[in-house]
């Protein structure tokens, strides 16, 4: 990766090496394989000397405040990972280095089939990379969304696997602090793996080796997601394992009903409902499910099953889990996964252009667009074409001056104009606004910017796979839809003409 401004990128990289204290491998006693240490911690997952160009990047799994997770296939081995790409500039600016360091160190030491595995890390001038095992089944949240709600048998299976993993996490002295369906990933076989340990909190008696003073830092820091935050956190009480058990209760409720128990129009209203414990159960909840959720959502964290003196024994013996073989969970048959309706296998083998033929409406109001109304870019050598997503090679830092506050990059590709004597290449950048940017990477100048709507709430971007994305709209009349498509393709034509000059 080329650093912008010559030594600027190298200086940033050295600065992060210093802050992260990631040292080079040192020989193991007896001439064995080298090990890596930071503050006397032996890393099982090594810090490699890879570059992002060693990987073929695909679907964007998720985007956070300073990171995004994408599907990454190692070109030489074919191994597939979930690559977490973290923006160094943002991390340094927001003082998040300690969070990144702690997540890396904690994930490296955890060893449980219900927890996502860290395979290796590397970095460059702009980004930190964590290669995690890839969970091809997606998020539990997606299964709830696609099915509307889960059956009790399905919810029981998933809840049992979460309980099993939480028992391990709490047993080694960690509090996850962000349990929710989006952070519960599914393997291709349908088994749960807990992910995203960026908010993890070690307890004072933690068995995990952590950074000095990390267990003594402010314990009542407000972290997590609004709908799953327990009342004691809202009242500024120190974090306990009971926080995760409350979130488990909220997640079980959502699995069975399709929505979170304290859902409301704003975070403030959600917090008011949580503090008041404004909890209503659907009539079709069984007595066993209702009782377990009611106990997990106890306002006293010490009374929640799993946080009592008998540990997880009372939770695992609850009638809701009747029939669960706790010693054979990972070998049990998992529920059948519901596939994404638009993410069919017919994408495989198609041309690698970004294809806009699947642009449709928002959920529940998708207009029928005849074939050909939203054509795809040509791959002819006589005209411009948009190539397959090749890399998110420098995350957002390199392009920050072209982005608005809070705007993030979703996909990056190359726009190539093949002429008689020369080939002109620029970066075509799709953001979540949604907006298209065309930037000359050699001169770092923006050639064109297309904003598809003055109101961002009208549109949103959904990435279907490495070479296809959708611009989803609110419900439009046929007239408004045709007008929107006309403007959209007019903008595309303008971009092509700009680079034909």
Write up this protein.
The protein has 501 residues and is an alpha+beta fold. It is built from eleven helices and 19 strands. The protein has three domains: 115 residues, Phosphorylase Kinase, domain 1 (2-Layer Sandwich), CATH 3.30.200.20; 171 residues, Transferase(Phosphotransferase), domain 1 (Orthogonal Bundle), CATH 1.10.510; 154 residues, no CATH class. Helices cover 25% and strands 21% of the residues. β16 and β17 form a beta hairpin. The protein starts with 6 loop residues before the first helix and ends with a helix. The relative contact order is 0.10.
Write the layout of secondary structure elements.
Elements: H1 7-20, E1 36-38, E2 41-43, E3 55-63, E4 67-74, E5 80-87, H2 88-93, H3 97-109, E6 118-123, E7 127-133, E8 138-139, H4 140-147, H5 152-171, E9 174-175, E10 184-186, E11 192-194, E12 201-202, H6 231-234, H7 242-257, H8 267-276, H9 287-296, H10 313-316, E13 385-386, E14 409-418, E15 423-431, E16 435-440, E17 445-451, E18 459-465, E19 468-473, H11 478-498
Antiparallel strand pairs: 1-2, 3-4, 4-5, 5-7, 6-7, 8-10, 9-12, 10-11, 13-14, 14-15, 15-16, 16-17, 18-19
Helix pairs in contact: 5-7, 7-9
